[in-house]
Amino acid sequence: MAEKLPKYLTRRKDGWLWVQIAVPEKAKKIIKKTILRKYLSTKDAAVAQIEMGQYITQFKRMISAAKVGRALPHTDPKAATIDPISKKALEIRRQGYHNEDAIELIASSLPLQQSYALIYSPLKMPGVAEAMQHFDFVDTAMGRKTPILAFLDDFISNYKGRAEHTVETRRKDVLKLANWLRDKDKLETVEQITRPVAVQFKR
Predict the structure, then answer these.
(1) CA separation (Å) from 133 to 73, 84, 116, 148?
(2) Which of 86, 195, 196 minimizes the C-alpha distance to 140?
(3) Which of 9, 75, 132, 184 counts the highest number of beta carbons within 10 A?
(4) For residue 33, with 0-12 CB atoms within 10 Å meaning exposed, 13-18 middle and 19 or more buried, which class applies?
């Protein structure tokens, strides 16, 4: 009986798994490929399902950008799990700087990040992308919002000294949670994880 794998997941003849997504005609001119593909370094379908979400998100963003004539770099999400806006906001937060008026001014002077433009530009509402970037920056800097992936290494450090496979399992659990929140159109933040949300995730 043929193995049934989730959409976008493919197993090679040697057993290794890949995540791949076909590039539509409108995006091929910019991307210059017919398929976007990432080797997942595993033969375990359950592990692959956890890992694949971050790559599918990236591939879809690349395709959306290409359709409107823009090119996004093909980078490994594991190598860059935090966007520049969150990174700068977290630097301010860790310094213990809580002057909200000053943080508002900093937020207003930041150039619009491509990630926000891609998500909110299709709404065709002027200023929405800038406003959402502004709110995210201020909330993160003031400690009202805590991006899960920004603190991934901090979460994992609690398992220092444990067996390597235990640490890796915990890392995958956090990534799985972040991907699940994204798929449910929820914010990928610690504050989003209420008891009802945790119950839904466990099902």
Answers:
(1) 21, 11, 7, 17
(2) 86
(3) 9
(4) middle
